[in-house]
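Database export, one record per block. Field names are fixed; values are copied verbatim from the stored entry.
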Amino acid sequence: MKLWWKSGAPWIWLNAGAVAVSIIMVLGLIGLIAVRGLSHFYPTEIVEFQVGDPELGLGQMVMGEHVRAETIPVPVARDAGINVPPELGEDELVTRHLIKQGNRDVTGNDFAWYAELQMSEWLAPRDAMRLERREWGDFYGYAVRVLEDDEVVAEGEGLWDELQSRVERANTLFRELRQIERNDVGVISAEMEELRIRERALQRDPNVEPDQLQTQLDQIQERQGVLQEAFQALSAEIDILRSELHRDTLVATVVGGEEVQIRIGDIVRAVQPNNLSLTAKVVEYLQQFWAFVSGEPREANTAGGIFPAIFGTVTMVLLMSMIVSPFGVLAAIYLREYAKQGPLLKLIRISVYNLAGVPSIVYGVFGLGFFIYTLGGSIDQLFYSERLPSPTFGSPALIWASLTLALLTLPVVIVSTEEGLARIPSSVRQGSLALGATKSETLWKVVVPLATPAMMTGMILAIARAAGEVAPLMLVGVVKLAPTLPVDGTFPFVHLDRQIMHLGFHIYDVGFQSPNVEAARPLVYATALVLVILIIVLNLTAISIRNRLRERYRAATD
């Protein structure tokens, strides 16, 4: 036994066990997030039942999707307003079910708890439908008829097919409307703003001759007239599209029999989950997930998609990588290869190591004070003075968020690159020098390429940390809702002065700031899963590049 302990085998097994436990915990966490997030998109059966006091014969009809059930003690049930039979003891349990009943515009709330004691048998009507709406959440009920300009066009047998075709038409019109409002109108608005700023700058410039000033002002006014005519034409087109969008109406009944009218232009998707086959449910599941990944958020981020957050996260991480890579690598090369060894260099290294442990919110405060207020404010004073007091770069934006994250991850890249340079064998350097290469040629053509895998390791760690940061980003450029992407077809195409959405902040906002907690719960898991997958993809890409570079230069170190 003593020999076994001295051999070091127990420590090897201990390390292996710790690694195995860590892997199991990570996989378990990812599995939990995946199950709770991905299950949200599967078409859930719509149930219908009656609740009330069976002895009194009173009850109300309820329709919706079963979310979850929980068991609570009898005293807690009585405190919750559940009519518990007196024969149940204080130590017994009562089961209650959370039902997503939707119809917020009718009932006032989306979710409600119902005690199993007061429930009748659950039914699953095949013609029960769920409507995903752009406002007021989901609607549960039965389709009665479709109206076009208040005239009945479908009811009975062909009602559902007609409703599906008109929902598809409405979604097409809605996309065209958003395209015009965001792109065409946006381009005109941006040019009108530039002309206004140019006119203001000319009027303030004392060096412009009166004749020249009047000529340029006339040109500006002429261009403004052309843009105004184009804007009026687009406004007329928008009015036509809106009237077409709101042409059709669906008459539906809620479970109690009350008829309600719903504009088909407000419907995103209409589904009868109880009437779907397994194949149709899988197709619906994939469509719902794709709509979540590629769509825009709605209803205070408790519905819709997360594409702006995905795009903002990827854009910010890529921009951060382009900023931190050259600065981190050059700083590490200088500290390792050129700086004179001494107390000052040791102090600098200690400072770099300590910076890696500084809380991220401190970087956010620094970015707010230095990058936004100082640097951004100075840029506005020098180059955008005619826009003041409205800031251009003197407010939170993509560029400042990327610079703050670059500063936050800079110590990681420096340390990793330094370690990579230190691991290059001295024989490689000496062989290069013996062949007549200068110190600079040896460094940049031999040593640095061999240290590239270590640099990529630093970038992997930097990307992993930057993609998941939230606290500093809330101060320097990330907002709750920014559907306008920082990259579009308007010059200069990449708008570094725009604010962005971020997956990490989106999770925080939906999970802790949402007015509808139950509706937001599955979206938190789904967004977290997307963020984890995004980080894994970015890391695997960097690891693949690192492995290729390692294989390329392995022969040089043998």
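Remark 1: The mean pLDDT is 86.
Remark 2: The longest strand covers residues 60-73.
End of record.
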